[in-house]
Hints:
Blueprint: H1 7-11, E1 33-34, E2 42-45, E3 48-51, H2 52-64, E4 73-77, H3 83-94, H4 113-116, H5 120-123, E5 138-141, H6 150-153, E6 160-165, H7 168-182, H8 195-203, H9 212-225, E7 231-235, H10 236-241, H11 243-254, H12 260-264, H13 267-274, H14 277-282, H15 284-288, H16 315-329
Parallel strand pairs: 4-5, 4-6, 6-7
Antiparallel strand pairs: 1-2, 2-3
Pfam families: Sulfotransfer_1
Family: Belongs to the sulfotransferase 1 family.
EC number: 2.8.2.-
Amino acid sequence: xxxxxxxxxxxxxxxxxxxxxxxxxxxxxxxxxxxxxxxxxxxxxxxxxxxxxxxxxxxxxxxxxxxxxxxxxxxxxxxxxxxxxxxxxxxxxxxxxxxxxxxxxxxxxxxxxxxxxxxxxxxxxxxxxxxxxxxxxxxxxxxxxxxxxxxxxxxxxxxxxxxxxxxxxxxxxxxxxxxxxxxxxxxxxxxxxxxxxxxxxxxxxxxxxxxxxxxxxxxxxxxxxxxxxxxxxxxxxxxxxxxxxxxxxxxxxxxxxxxxxxxxxxxxxxxxxxxxxxxxxxxxxxxxxxxxxxxxxxxxxxxxxxxxxxxxxxxxxxxxxxxxxxxxxxxxxxxxxxxx
Length: 340
């Protein structure tokens, strides 16, 4: 799969990113480097700023070792765009026959959503831990669509992708706050990382998996191209307004539609309640537990609302970012404006 060389790559003399992604580790030293967004070293590859560790291990392993199944469901997102909530909703919906949402021993009552639904590129860092999972498997990824292997995105794969999109200003603020809170797990103190610094980098797309709007655009374009059964595009803000209808849509897309009996029995509302951020935040495992990467589970639960950016950004900052995004998306047909 070939990709156009970015302007940054060309200007800095990096090897054109036209080689197969499985071999990307070999060219990492030649790729533009960004170190100002803690705690990661970022490399500019195929139009995105990707954590170096992901390019060294995650991407090559996903392309060379991961064996997808036709029943697989992948939850894709730019970081801090509703990922944790989507993981909980999708897991509870897809696995409700083996894990009834009303049961006291439901996995989400004892494990964090990130333990129930693991990240593809991280799981492949430590060996393929996914082969033992029973079908249907539900996995997550922050990889841009163009960095996913053809074995997942190809016409014959049968895999389904659910993408959740969030308004850029809220995504930025959430990512900045998460960075400050979670960085100690990687031995980095990011308390001095200001919103102004994060804003300037975000506007340039120089954040992990950025530019955010290009990340969103790739998945949206694929959802338009193949709307029937391959890519479901969800908007976080719309899900907040009507969670039950979106859970039903999610179930239909994943091939596990709710029966009339289930709907009448209130199963959908039980799942929404179980997976509400307030409920998840209050569970012992999310108040005091940690992920295997050392990040405290409570770092993943904040306000979960739309519009919180206004408490951290000035109107001038908001206008500037809106203009950058508007210009970047001009002519694509996509807008972040909610249709709800």
